[in-house]
Amino acid sequence: DADVTQTPRNRITKTGKRIMLECSQTKGHDRMYWYRQDPGLGLRLIYYSFDVKDINKGEISDGYSVSRQAQAKFSLSLESAIPNQTALYFCATLDTKRPETQYFGPGTRLLVL
Amino acid sequence: GQSLEQPSEVTAVEGAIVQINCTYQTSGFYGLSWYQQHDGGAPTFLSYNGLDGLEETGRFSSFLSRSDSYGYLLLQELQMKDSASYFCAVRDMGSARQLTFGSGTQLTVLP
After folding, report:
1. C-alpha distance from residue B91 to each of A8, A99, B76 (Å)
2. Residue B99 has what pLDDT?
3. Which residues contact A40 (CB under 8 A, 6 or more apart)?
4. Across-strand partners of B64?
5. Disruptive mutation site among A50, A59, A102, A108 for chain B (greatest number of B CBs within 10 Å)
6. What percent of chain A has pLDDT over 70?
């Protein structure tokens, strides 16, 4: 079984709709991250969380919100989706004993029409 | 803030050696990581340099020079399956709680 899972894997939605992307992990890591990836722009950090009560904005948090429901679950919401949020979204965890290493989920491909 | 520069594309033939460079600017510095991503897949950790010098992991090696703010990933005995994007990433003292990724280098291995 995958250590970091994301649902859905693919999603098509319309402008103005609210959607939620979910991430679960079985690695037991406290730190979790949401990134988006656009062609040629690498990975950009949206939000990150160190535990259920510690949530921080990343480089590109506008238009997004997150919820850390438990150590193992970290959800990303687009309150009112817009076409330029079309991207590949990755969830990741980090082992504080090896902070140079992040473990990524399989990604969610989102298309906003 | 942090910035990283790496070439956007590299092409090499099967069996060859290729080097992917990464230069960085940070307010402080903990170390340089490398990740591999196959098309549409999840990035996976390859290598980390916290100190100057060469780290070797099988066919892959990574090098760091702190004085030059420079590192590279060396891939030897290239195989078709090495065709992927490669990202360097830094964890610096200013934002020690997160990694910042470069834009990635698309490696194409030709037969």
Report:
1. 30, 8, 26
2. 84
3. B8, B103, B104
4. B53, B71
5. A102
6. 98
Alpha-carbon gap, residue B4 to B12, rounded angstroms:
23
Q: In this structure, what token pair is assigned to residue A47?
A: 């939000």
CA distance B76 to chain A (A): 23
C-alpha span between B11 and B109 (Å, rounded): 6
B103 CA: distance to closest CA in chain A (Å): 4
- Residues of chain B in contact with residue A104, where contact means CB-CB under 8 angstroms, are 42-44
The residues with which A4 forms a beta bridge, in sequence order, are A25
* Phi/psi of residue A18, nearest 5 degrees: -95, 130
B54-78 confidence digits (pLDDT tens)? 999 899 999 999 999 999 999 999 9
Query: What span, in angstroms and rounded, lies between the C-alpha atoms of B53 and B66?
Result: 9
CA dihedral A5, A81, A33, B2 (to 10 degrees): 140
Which of B60, B71, B81, B92 minimizes the C-alpha distance to B14? Answer: B81
